Amino acid sequence: MEEVLACYVGRLAPSPTGALHLGNVRTFLIAYLRARSLGGKVIFRMEDLDHPRDKPGAAAEAREDLRWLGFDWDEYYVQSERKHIYREALAQLPVYPCVCTRRDVERAQSAPHEGDQLYYPGICRGRFASWAEAAKAAGPLRMPCWRFRVEEGTRVEFDDVFAGHYSQDVSVVLGDFPLARDEAGAGYTLAAVVDDLLMGVTEVVRGDDLLPATPAQILVARALKGSVPAYCHVPLVVGPDGRRLAKRHGDTRIGHYRASGVKPEEIIGFLASSCGWCPRGESVAIKELVENFRLDSIPHEPFSCSIQSSNILGG
Question: What pTM does this model have?
Fold first, then answer.
């Protein structure tokens, strides 16, 4: 048992596309306590490859906010500094360049789709001999993307630690899915998989909005002949309208609460109480929760959160 606990490796993987908010922190809190309660390692990885949406200063602010809240980590990485690694991994994969726009893909749908899960029928398969040729065809205003070739009948099944059994026929739901809009392969799907493999991540704890994207990531990991981590998808924080927490619900930024005089223990206590680890209104430090952590006490429905400061303070 001690050997199993010692080898657990989890990760915190924020993206600098915006300020850290209550929804992010609740998921990070679960991931952090899961690792520490098992005597494991925590890796911090800044996923800063979504260049058009990255906000100046957001990466540093996220680190500061997490430190202020009481998080710590054993290793630290920045994805934008690792592009050469993703290029090497890309060369091992069954990929091809594609110039189709989202509108092109939407027009090719033979059935309705939900959210961002668009099926791609392989329109650009065999069309271009190289990325440079595809880039020329795409024109100066947009970039091609790399797509992973999915063979017919490719089904992925796995048992999620929290969400339970999940099955998806990737060839029917996604088809040839996109990996990156970067010649070096520096995009979210490829980079996240490569880093999880190289960093020895044994379990990925994240929001359940990413559950449908997991089979594609498992296919990439298998193609790289890596040890696929376990997955643990937990419910999101939503506003009173049931939609994912966002600006429309008010200011839920950690920076806003810091400036308002809210103490980190009050925020941690508020979020911990939503997971069943302490009574509502109790102030608690992260490290005090390690012994109280239980995955099975977390409700399976989304946490509906009113964002008034008085609610965090227990009022």
Answer: 0.92
Do 43 and 100 share a domain, yes or no? no
- The tokens for 263 are 């103490």
Last residue of a domain, one of 163, 187, 211: 187
Residue 147 belongs to a domain: yes
Tokens of 291: 């012994």
Q: What is the pLDDT of residues 143-176, one digit of tens each?
A: 899 999 999 999 999 999 999 999 999 999 999 9
- Residue 120 shares a structural domain with residue 74: no
> Considering its fold, how many domains does the chain have in total?
2
Q: Could you identify the residue written with the tokens 């952090």? A: 32
- CB distance 240 to 304 below 8 Å: yes
Rounded to 10 degrees, what is the CA torsion of 299, 275, 167, 246?
A: 100
Among candidate residues 206, 152, 164, the one with its CA nearest the CA of residue 14: 206
233: helix, strand or coil: strand
Q: Residue 92 is part of which domain span? A: 87-187
Q: Residue 267 in contact with residue 254, Cβ under 8 Å? A: yes
Q: Which run of H or of E encompasses 152?
A: none
Element (H, E) at 97: strand 95-98
CA separation for the pair 111, 210 (Å, rounded): 22
CATH of the domain at 73: 3.40.50.620
CA 122 to chain centre: 26
255 with 307, same domain?
A: yes
Name the DSSP letter for residue 54.
Answer: P
The pLDDT tens digits of the residues spanning 175-190 come to 999 999 999 999 999 9
